[in-house]
Write a structure and sequence with these properties.
homodimer; alpha/beta; Nucleotidyltransferase, domain 5; 2 domains; 6-stranded mixed sheet; 9 helices; 14 strands; globular; DGOK_N (chains A, B); DGOK (chains A, B)
């Protein structure tokens, strides 16, 4: 049974998860679906069946465009969408990789990520968030901060990504709080003062991080430091180290933080503590906005 | 069946493993045994059976001293051996915790670790290596570097540990090379030039570590950087960051590296690259030497 209102499908296909939106016209969401069949669990012939599982019963007989961003375009993904190299605008649909499918009802486009040769760096997925942000604020000139597993800082000017840098902050936090000796000392709570103190320490003495990390364990053993303080301090040490390295990005610049509520708030608190001026834009919807911008290019070129 | 020559037992009981030596007189090794029944896998009533499994058939009817260092003395170990607080000499047998056993043939002594209140820090096991080193070089005045999972730097003067600091360098290396996104980029080989380059970068700009780490992944994707270069660079970034923080310890000081051959050599290479003067002392035997020094104190006080 086909749904006559479905006009295209937007997909954010990451390493561990995918999110998908069924769209009516250019920008009306009919339905949203999620799955844990991320790139990490799939071989290249596994993508089409996952897509058909999620939307097959809704596909009309006419061909439906599927516009994908994220790790599905990696070399080990569905099909490689070679990086566009900065400085450049976030890749348009014209740069997308077309993928042949068994099912003739699908017309699949995978958007490329961005690369930078010096220093070497890559992104896949964030370029579409940046495109989504620029769709709302085309004249933005300044810095985007995209906190996450691999936090990105990007310099945006004249609708282009001029340069960017990735910090493994979120992955370090996950490894240290979940799998290192510190897991015994880290709780689920929070303490703003401990967080800000740790951020300041790292901005002054970033080299000390490996000792301050072990100090979280020692402070629990010797001073019964609370697990909530330890968690806030761990976050502050790692975000503080990132801010110390990213200082040329944020010092004296307009910074917009694109991130999930809790984490974006921590970055805002840290930057405000350094008298940096920043604002947050909710990430929810930004990726879809970027995919929608790409779909708009499809309509234009038809 | 008893072995009349067994006079005492030396044990290095760590988190994941234990090593044990059966001794004749003060310092003659009869046999060496190993087990993976470390502190992490035992509750407090599990230690005596492990010990009896390993040496029970060799115990004479008379009581045999068992001298233990390491995590068996932690709060979650066999019995807590409260930390001695620096500045102080490595703990002597008089400071050891006596543990009652079911088997009357055992007389168990657990040596304390060391603690430092400011900045908060702890060690368990390394204090006995330091005691072993000082047994050979009682007049040493300088810096000991003990690389490992949790690398220690200790300032030694007048046979005391004046201060020390722990860096999570080895654990970070294990987590990043084995469990992070970098695991795909890291090989088993080595490259001295890449290692020294990364050490120098971190000594100049330690804050950048989280970006340089992700750069290992990007350099593989964009420049086909070899997995051996990536491994040496990862090691250099982490050891370089440790050296940047520990600079007040090593700058203009005599440094002795107490460590396993490969890792100690990397630290020596890194320090020599900074024109620091250091020498290596083989770690094999140092722990036993420290336990033997403690046993010598038992004989004296009998």
């Amino acid at each position: 049974m086909s749904n006559p209102a479905l006009s295209w499908i937007a997909v954010d296909w990451g390493t561990t998860h995918l999110r998908l939106w069924m769209m009516d016209g250019n920008d009306k969401v009919i339905a949203r679906r999620e799955s844990d069949r991320g790139m990490g669990s799939l071989t290249s012939d596994g993508y089409e069946p996952v897509l058909l599982d999620l939307v097959g019963d809704q596909l009309p007989e006419t061909q439906t465009p599927v516009i994908i961003c994220g790790m599905a375009g990696a070399r080990q993904g569905w099909a490689e969408a070679p990086y566009a190299s900065v400085p450049c605008a976030p890749p348009s649909l014209a740069q997308a990789t077309r993928v042949a499918t068994q099912d003739p009802r699908l017309s699949v486009h995978i958007l490329p990520g961005l690369s930078q040769m010096s220093p070497p760096d890559v992104m896949r997925g964030e370029e579409t968030q940046i495109a989504g942000f620029l769709a709302s604020e085309p004249n933005f000139d300044g810095i985007l901060c995209l906190p996450g597993t691999h936090s990105k800082w990007a310099h945006i000017s004249a609708q282009e990504v001029v340069s960017f840098r990735t910090y493994m902050t979120g992955e370090l936090f996950a490894l240290l709080s979940g799998q290192s000796v510190l897991r015994h000392s880290i709780g689920q709570g929070w303490d703003d003062e401990a967080f800000l103190g740790a951020v300041s320490e790292m901005l002054s003495r970033p080299a000390g991080v490996a000792a301050e990390l072990f100090g979280l364990r020692a402070a629990q053993l010797l001073q019964a430091q609370s697990p909530d303080v330890a968690r806030a301090r761990l976050s502050g040490l790692l975000i503080g180290m990132e801010l110390a390295a990213a200082r040329p990005y944020w010092l004296g610049q307009e910074v917009v933080i694109l991130g999930a509520a809790g984490l974006a708030k921590a970055y805002e608190t840290a930057l405000n503590g350094q008298s940096a001026w920043c604002r947050m834009v909710d990430i929810e919807g930004i990726t879809l906005q970027g995919l929608t911008a790409a779909h708009g290019q499809l309509t234009q070129t038809r």
